[in-house]
Amino acid sequence: MNYFPKAWVNYIVLVTNFKYLPDYIDNIINAAVLFQLIYVFSPHLLRILRPEYDTLSYSKRYGLKTTIVSQVHSLVALWISFPLFFDKALIDDHVLGVSKNAMIVCGFSTGYFLWDAIICIANVSSGGIADVFHGVCCFITFSSIYNPALQYYLPRVLLYELSTLFMNVYKVFNSTTYFPETLKTINSMLFAITFFVVRIVLGALFSLNVYYDLIVNRHRIPLWIIIFYFTNNIILNILNVFWFRKILHVARKQLLKPKPQTKEEDSLKSKLQ
Description:
By secondary structure, the protein is mainly α. The chain is 76% helix and 0% strand.
């Protein structure tokens, strides 16, 4: 299926130098449409998970719907990207190595971040400007793989989605009363740990490796990609630190929150008074 006239696609390739984009642009659009359909139909699932869904504000309903979409992307992206860690073409050349499987995986995630950028811009008053920056930066980052450039780092960047799995569970269930407190605590701990490990520690390590590969191979790739990746990595790492501080703040409040007294404790307290 051709969504765009060939002349339009050729112009995009001319401007961006994404020479592999014409072969995968339909995959990107198909993925974006799929995520929009999930977004539209997600309330049916949310009414089961959150019976009070219809009484929530627009912002909260919007947040829950995007959470369902995000969870689908994270699960599928992690699954289909794992074999790329062992792709010889990418291992042999970190910068310009090309893999058809990598571009298929990239089409799926690029479609997600295209959808994410559009939905965040349309709902900036509900989601915030940080979500817009994140969506746009990720969309451009994944699109640039069709230059081709840095396909080796695709499965490594998608490791970030490990923390997203636990974050989404937190968003859906943490404010409910029927989800056991013990499971909430375990999920919150796993979220904080995976976020720190994959986004802060491994994220910083991957960024340094990207910087090194870009500098060493600066004569093999366009200057704008080098500038973009340096700038983009700084923005995303700042956002990750910003979000991790918020995670620690919430975790601290939960740990310091007094536990509700049981009936036995209330009874004992009344007898002692």
